[in-house]
Write a structure and sequence with these properties.
This protein is of the alpha/beta class. Helix content is about 40%, strand content about 25%. The protein has a single domain, classed as Mannitol-specific EII, Chain A. A hairpin with a 2-residue loop joins strand 2 and strand 3.
Amino acid sequence: MNLINYIDRQRVIFLEANEINSALKEMVEASREKVNNSDNFLQALISREELMSTGFGFGIAYPHAKTPDIDEFFITIGISKAGIDWKSFDQKDAQLIFMIGGPDGQQDIYLKLLAGLSSFLKNSQLHDQLTNFCEDIDSFYQFIVKNLNQ
């Protein structure tokens, strides 16, 4: 599975939010062309966070939800320069938020996307390099494209 097939430059954004629900709202707004009912998808993301935080730690969060309002999987990336308390196990604020949206009934692809992102970002050297690109979205996106295609 090539993760870059699920990421589009137009869905890589700087976040203005300073808390989880506002960040999710900004990211859902950036994903409008992929979601048939943005309100339902946003509520699904919020409900998922209420069950258990998707804060991965190391400055990363993976909010995710599947709803019947989505036709195909996608990833939207939010960058928070200040960081957002995503209730991660290490208590570090999330600066890189990788939101996954997808249709109900496709658990295999869903799990592969989560595993692929985890594998990609668990490399601490790569994570440090990603953080260095957080000042320029085009450079950040090009870095992701290059490293996801390896």
